[in-house]
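Let us practice reading a record.
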Amino acid sequence: MELSLPEVPSSGFRWLCRLPRGVHLVDDEYRGQDGGEQGHPIRGQVVTGAGPPGAGGVRRLAFGIVDAGRLPLHADLIRPWEQAPRRTLTFVLSAAPNE
């Protein structure tokens, strides 16, 4: 399962997810506005296509799901040094057993 969320890195805000049991993060990547292929790692993440200063892009998060059922996933748009998120999105994943 993948989520693509708008993000402006120069604002200091970043999407962080609170995951339920049975869901794990597989990939975390920021793709700039121009979508270029000049990637470089930052804290274990891949950053591609920086674009002009202050421009936004998309945070792409990929998840593996190992449990069946209704699984709530919360995405917080937050600055790491602040207590409260600016925005929280909640998604409910419905996963069925794959036999």
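A brief commentary: Confidence is low (pLDDT under 50) at residues 36-44.
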